[in-house]
Amino acid sequence: MPSVESLSGIAPAASRAAPGFGALLKVELLLVLRKRADIANPLLFFVTVLALLPLGVGPEPELLARVAPGIIWVMALLATLLSQESLFRSDFEDGTLEQVTLSPQPLYFAVLAKTAVHWLVTGLPLALLSPLLGLMLNLPAAGYLCLFASLLLGSASLSLIGAVGAALTVALRRPGLLLALIVMPLYVPVLIFGTGAVQAAIDGYAYSAQLAILAALLAAAAALAPLAAAGAIRISVDN
Amino acid sequence: METKVEFQFASLADFLAMDGHGIYVWIAYGVTAAALIALAVYPSLRRRQLQRELQRQQRIQQRRQQVESDRIKTAEPA
Amino acid sequence: MAWQWFHRLGSPRWFYERTGVWLPWLALASLVLLTVGSVWGLGFAPQDAKQGNSYRIIYIHVPAAFLALAGYYIMAISGAIGLIWKMKLSFAVMRAAAPIGAVLTFVALFTGAIWGKPTWGTYWVWDARITSMLILLFLYIGVIALARAFSREQVADKACALLALVGTVNIPIIYKSVDWWFTLHQPATIKLTQSSSIDPSMFYPLLTMIVGFYCLYTWTLIAHTRTLVLQREWRTQWVQQELAEGNRGGD
Predict the structure, then answer these.
(1) Membrane-spanning residues where (chain A) (predicted)?
(2) Number of domains into which chain B is organized
(3) DSSP characters over A59-105
(4) Residue C213 half-sphere exposure, CB side, CA atoms within 13 Å?
């Protein structure tokens, strides 16, 4: 888990690019780190469900090795999705979100900061945990590095895309399943290229192309998703 | 060059059977027709529903006015 | 001045009164085209050399798939117009387009699955096109579900418009990625249609059906929008008069 201090090095550089961004990042991180349970839950979910898989399909190592990349990716996707529901919730309920929309800072950077912190506390730990789960599911040795790299890149895109859904549903009382319904189809390209990369690595092919596409998806998501999420927040707050 | 357009099947039974593929073809066409008809009919059903709703509300309003005026009438002598 | 028509178009009442005249003609055109196209496609178009008679499903599958995709763009564009110009009518069009598009996507999926049985021997294959269609159906369902979740129509309109726009940006990426995924997992299986080399005797009925589906789409979209307008302008005098007249101009 990165501490607040380690991030403060990035903060000044970021605030030069976008005033207030570094401060936002710091505040968000502090707030999230205070609620440890919220960070642990997606990870525990990730591990628990993956432990259920061999109980469901049987413990044959070949079978597990065959489905491991896909299952690990799908579970990472679900863990991200589940943690995303609360992304804007408390800020919406206590009125902070409304203050943020009224502030002179562009809403874009506020959303970007929130999403970045979300990724730091879910996507990054998920990627760090993935080799362990690969081990449990008998993932072939060639796949580890690629699994880690693809999750690292892909989960950031997932956080960004999910932020749009979270912003759209923040005004609803029980958004859980609805959020999943509207966001999951949008996750499809990330999932396809993520698992495609790992499968290529296992089969002994070059996988840099898939990782490059994941990076391109991330770049596009970073540029567009906060804009859409900012629009959605305005709709939800004006409500 | 003229392409001749003619009926491809010898009999009605042949047409329905379609060389054994009839069941698939007819189910596909049947479900599509049902879906499209549902799409086409829904607006008029909904319109009728709105009409009934309006009538109901108007009746309620009339009755309320009736009750109100009756009450005023009975209250007056006292 | 030049924009006057545009703003007038935004008035629900103007739209309602104007489109009432078009509806019977659109209904007639779609009925005639679809009947002619179906009879032509089912009975008069020649049999396919490889697939036999089961290929006749193409005459409903392809037009439905066309409109399912086009419908999503129509929905997103009217949503965008609503967001940008704050046009009430445009939102009504968007909301009407969602269930129609979902039904057409379902039709495309269903007929594709039925077609798969005699062609591939199974109802469902994870073929690139079918999978993309399934995801499109999920996108439609997402918009419909989001619309239903809000109690205030205005918020629902804006939220749905935004979601539809996000979906529009994603659709090409989803299609490309599913295509890539399919070639990865299932190299060189049967191609469903060779649309480039389709014979004119098979193509003309298909064209008739496509035009017929477009007419039907326009007709139902207008009719659904009209009922939505009635529902939303419920409190206004003209709607109450319109509904009270009842028998006249029933569509």
Answers:
(1) 39-57, 63-82, 107-129, 141-170, 177-202, 208-233
(2) 1
(3) --HHHHHHHHHHHHHHHHHHHHHHHHTTTTHHHHHTTHHHHHHHSSS
(4) 30
- The full set of domain ranges for chain C reads 22-189+198-236
Chain A residues whose C-beta is within 8 A of a chain C C-beta are 164, 168-169, 171-172, 175, 178, 181-182, 184-186, 188-189, 192-193, 196, 199, 217, 224, 228, 231-232, 235-236, 238-239
Is B18 part of a structural domain of the chain? no
Does residue C84 belong to the interface with chain A, where contact is any CB pair within 8 Å? no
d(CA A30, CA A99): 19
pLDDT value of residue A4: 47
| pLDDT tens digit sequence for A43-101 | 898 889 888 888 988 888 889 988 999 999 999 999 999 888 888 888 888 888 888 88
Residue B45 inside a domain? The answer is: yes
Q: Which residue has the tokens 């050399």?
A: C49
CA nearest neighbour of A197 among A222, A216, A185, A214? A214
Q: Do C173 and A189 touch (CB under 8 A)?
A: yes
Confidence of residue A1 (pLDDT cuts 50, 70, 90): very low
Cα torsion through A187, A192, A193, A198, rounded to 10: 120
Listed in sequence order, the residues at least 6 apart from A239 whose beta carbon sits closer than 8 Å to its beta carbon are A171, C152, C155
Look at residue B60 and tell me if it is in a domain. Answer: yes
Q: Which two tokens stand for residue C219?
A: 């007709």
Query: Which one of B9, B31, B38 has the shortest CB-CB distance to C110?
Result: B31
* Residue in the structure block whose two tokens are 């502030």: A103
Cβ proximity of C209 and C38 under 8 Å: yes
- Which structure tokens are listed for A139? 């993932």
Q: Identify residue C161 by its one-letter amino acid code.
A: A
Check if C43 contacts B (Cβ < 8 Å). yes
Alpha-carbon distance B56 to B38, whole Å? 26
CA–CA gap between residue A105 and residue A155 (Å, rounded): 27
DSSP C44: I
pTM for the predicted model, two decimal places: 0.87
Dihedral of CA atoms C181, C187, C188, C193 in degrees, nearest 10, equals -20
Helix axes C58-85 and C153-185, enclosed angle (nearest 10):
140
Tokens of A143: 């796949």
Confidence of residue B3 (pLDDT cuts 50, 70, 90): low
d(CA C91, CA A153): 36
What distance in Å separates the CA atoms of residue C217 and residue C225, rounded to the nearest whole number?
12
DSSP helix/strand/coil, A166:
helix
- Dist CA A166 CA A171 (whole Å): 9
- A205: Cβ–Cβ under 8 A, 6 or more apart, which residues? none
What range defines the domain where residue B40 resides?
Answer: 30-78
